[in-house]
Amino acid sequence: MALRAAVLRHVRVAVQTRGLESNPWFPSGSIRLMSSHDDHLTKEEVADRVLSVIKSFPKVDPSRVTPEVHFQKDLGLDSLDNVEIVMALEEEFKLEIPDKEADKIDSCNLAIEYIHNHPTVQLI
Amino acid sequence: MSVATATYLVRRAAQKERVRILYRRALKDTLNWAVHRHLFYEDADLLRARFETNKHVEDPDTIDRMIADGEVQYNKWRHPDPYIVPWAPGGSKFTRNPAPPEGIEIVYNYGREDND
């Protein structure tokens, strides 16, 4: 026991300052988000995720999807398909979009704008 | 009846919006009842087929009646315990941890006093 204490007193382990504090993907404890409304995605991440959701829609041709595409005019979708896409976006970002707002989301632009300005968009 | 007057178009547009909102709510309800994804996809296809069969109807009165019927059916089949996103009004985490006001922060000094 005394030998162990003596050894431990002489052994020094280098303490590495972890550079993860500034990385928003791995908050290591010094940044603690106190509420679910603090996390915020950048617009490119939102746009990437929105485009990947739209590209994986079975009725959509993935090569024609751009960030400015209009669901009914450019992609030739139905209004009911529009509703389905908005529901898929709700599930992807874990949002709850009120019915009146969801009706107005007609194009990729509007979707990205709305999701970016929504307070509770989640990272996962 | 198919004269393209302004009132007719406005009425048709309002009906289309009602149909879209009804389809959205019915789809969410289908997801509430059929929790597993493969069951949900089949039920969603059936629901879509039911909407598609009435797609071509032109007469506004018939459409109104059909929308009223659809809403009655939707109200009959509403799930008693729907899934609500936690951060949404009605969810479990709604206003649970509101953002603290500006300028307030926690000082991590682990109990060290000022005169230590």
Automatic annotation (TrEMBL), chain A:
<protein>
    <recommendedName>
        <fullName>Acyl carrier protein</fullName>
    </recommendedName>
</protein>
<dbReference type="GO" id="GO:0000035">
    <property type="term" value="F:acyl binding"/>
</dbReference>
<dbReference type="InterPro" id="IPR009081">
    <property type="entry name" value="PP-bd_ACP"/>
</dbReference>
<keyword id="KW-0444">Lipid biosynthesis</keyword>
<keyword id="KW-0809">Transit peptide</keyword>
<dbReference type="InterPro" id="IPR036736">
    <property type="entry name" value="ACP-like_sf"/>
</dbReference>
<dbReference type="GO" id="GO:0005739">
    <property type="term" value="C:mitochondrion"/>
</dbReference>
<keyword id="KW-0276">Fatty acid metabolism</keyword>
<keyword id="KW-0249">Electron transport</keyword>
<keyword id="KW-0443">Lipid metabolism</keyword>
<dbReference type="Pfam" id="PF00550">
    <property type="entry name" value="PP-binding"/>
</dbReference>
<keyword id="KW-0496">Mitochondrion</keyword>
<comment type="similarity">
    <text>Belongs to the acyl carrier protein (ACP) family.</text>
</comment>
<keyword id="KW-0597">Phosphoprotein</keyword>
<dbReference type="InterPro" id="IPR003231">
    <property type="entry name" value="ACP"/>
</dbReference>
<keyword id="KW-0679">Respiratory chain</keyword>
<feature type="domain" description="Carrier">
    <location>
        <begin position="44"/>
        <end position="119"/>
    </location>
</feature>
<keyword id="KW-0813">Transport</keyword>
<dbReference type="GO" id="GO:0000036">
    <property type="term" value="F:acyl carrier activity"/>
</dbReference>
<comment type="subunit">
    <text>Complex I is composed of at least 49 different subunits.</text>
</comment>
<comment type="pathway">
    <text>Lipid metabolism; fatty acid biosynthesis.</text>
</comment>
<comment type="function">
    <text>Carrier of the growing fatty acid chain in fatty acid biosynthesis. May be involved in the synthesis of short and medium chain fatty acids. Accessory and non-catalytic subunit of the mitochondrial membrane respiratory chain NADH dehydrogenase (Complex I), which functions in the transfer of electrons from NADH to the respiratory chain.</text>
</comment>
From TrEMBL, chain B:
<dbReference type="InterPro" id="IPR045292">
    <property type="entry name" value="Complex1_LYR_NDUFB9_LYRM3"/>
</dbReference>
<keyword id="KW-0007">Acetylation</keyword>
<keyword id="KW-0496">Mitochondrion</keyword>
<comment type="subunit">
    <text>Mammalian complex I is composed of 45 different subunits.</text>
</comment>
<dbReference type="Pfam" id="PF05347">
    <property type="entry name" value="Complex1_LYR"/>
</dbReference>
<dbReference type="InterPro" id="IPR008011">
    <property type="entry name" value="Complex1_LYR_dom"/>
</dbReference>
<comment type="similarity">
    <text>Belongs to the complex I LYR family.</text>
</comment>
<dbReference type="GO" id="GO:0006120">
    <property type="term" value="P:mitochondrial electron transport, NADH to ubiquinone"/>
</dbReference>
<keyword id="KW-0597">Phosphoprotein</keyword>
<keyword id="KW-0999">Mitochondrion inner membrane</keyword>
<comment type="function">
    <text>Accessory subunit of the mitochondrial membrane respiratory chain NADH dehydrogenase (Complex I), that is believed to be not involved in catalysis. Complex I functions in the transfer of electrons from NADH to the respiratory chain. The immediate electron acceptor for the enzyme is believed to be ubiquinone.</text>
</comment>
<keyword id="KW-0679">Respiratory chain</keyword>
<keyword id="KW-0249">Electron transport</keyword>
<keyword id="KW-0472">Membrane</keyword>
<protein>
    <recommendedName>
        <fullName>NADH dehydrogenase [ubiquinone] 1 beta subcomplex subunit 9</fullName>
    </recommendedName>
</protein>
<dbReference type="GO" id="GO:0005743">
    <property type="term" value="C:mitochondrial inner membrane"/>
</dbReference>
<feature type="domain" description="Complex 1 LYR protein">
    <location>
        <begin position="18"/>
        <end position="71"/>
    </location>
</feature>
<dbReference type="InterPro" id="IPR033034">
    <property type="entry name" value="NDUFB9"/>
</dbReference>
<keyword id="KW-0813">Transport</keyword>
